[in-house]
Task: inverse folding
């Protein structure tokens, strides 16, 4: 394994702690107000810009240097049959240079078809051909963007392919020599699709947990569909499902290389965003308090029993 691989780079990054995923263009919550009034409520911000790179500089400048940050890009479409156009790649590199994050997150999905944005995640097809294309794309992207890229499992409403999601993630992580972001709600969305919705951690033993660098949680709504159930991301506009929190409790002690836990809070009130961070911090304090003590956000936090 190369010492300069994306996986090795994130292994050397600091522990970020429990953070909030925000959209810089959202009026609610306003990340500036979160920083000003609720700084003690989160360790870092995961900054999402909708893939925009033409209007980000002024917004990024409003994030003080002493607020740790990661970056969530959109538009690289790494599971597509070919590498995405130059624009999104150059834009991602530009935003990385402005933010200087330890890594960048990108969904394992397609959001653009023939150059047009789709308001729907087309998640990875779970077969060998898609593994091959994804690995090739991630390797090509690693040569063109300055920091390591962490692919994230996308939400599923329909599963196509003969491979289990966890086998796909393993082959991508090892093939591209990278870490992973595991979105726990998205894991449950897959389980709902394959008839294992009552077992959110079904077959989790398949997944190489050493590759998980970051965990995502978010509010969601579950909708009935054709006799089954579909997971819909709501981010901060809804409660974190108990199934996602169950997965957090089950996996947290088993993630040796975990660096960050992000609660995606777009559309939440300020108070709602901080409350969800407290909810997640309580779980971490109960199961892995020493991990929080190593977070890099300025003054060390005391590990306390949540209540």
Result:
């Amino acid at each position: 394994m190369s010492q300069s691989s994306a996986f090795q780079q994130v292994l050397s990054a600091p522990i970020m702690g429990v953070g909030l995923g925000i959209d810089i263009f959202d009026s609610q919550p306003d990340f500036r107000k979160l920083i000003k009034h609720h700084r003690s409520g989160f360790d870092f911000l995961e900054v999402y810009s909708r893939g925009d790179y033409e209007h980000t500089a002024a917004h990024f400048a409003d994030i003080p240097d002493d607020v740790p940050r990661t970056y969530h890009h959109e538009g690289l479409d790494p599971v597509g049959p070919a590498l995405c156009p130059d624009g999104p790649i150059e834009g991602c590199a530009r935003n990385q240079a402005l933010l200087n994050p330890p890594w960048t997150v990108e969904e394992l999905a397609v959001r653009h078809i023939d150059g047009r944005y789709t308001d729907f995640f087309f998640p990875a097809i779970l077969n060998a051909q898609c593994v091959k294309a994804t690995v090739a794309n991630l390797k090509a992207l690693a040569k063109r963007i300055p920091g390591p890229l962490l692919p994230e499992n996308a939400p599923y409403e329909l599963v196509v392919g003969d491979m289990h999601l966890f086998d796909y993630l393993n082959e991508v992580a090892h093939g591209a020599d990278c870490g992973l972001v595991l979105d726990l709600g998205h894991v449950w969305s897959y389980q709902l699709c394959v008839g294992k919705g009552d077992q959110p951690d079904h077959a989790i033993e398949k997944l190489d947990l050493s590759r998980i660098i970051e965990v995502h949680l978010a509010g969601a709504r579950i909708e009935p569909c054709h006799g089954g159930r579909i997971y819909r991301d709501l981010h901060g506009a809804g409660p974190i499902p108990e199934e996602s929190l169950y997965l957090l409790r089950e996996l947290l002690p088993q993630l040796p290389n975990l660096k960050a836990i992000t609660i995606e809070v777009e559309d939440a009130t300020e108070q709602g965003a901080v409350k969800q961070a407290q909810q997640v911090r309580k779980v971490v304090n109960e199961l892995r308090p020493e991990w929080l003590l190593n977070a890099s956000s300025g003054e060390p936090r005391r590990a306390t029993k949540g209540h």
Notes: The first helix runs from residue 6 to 11. The mean pLDDT is 93. The chain has one domain: 6-293.
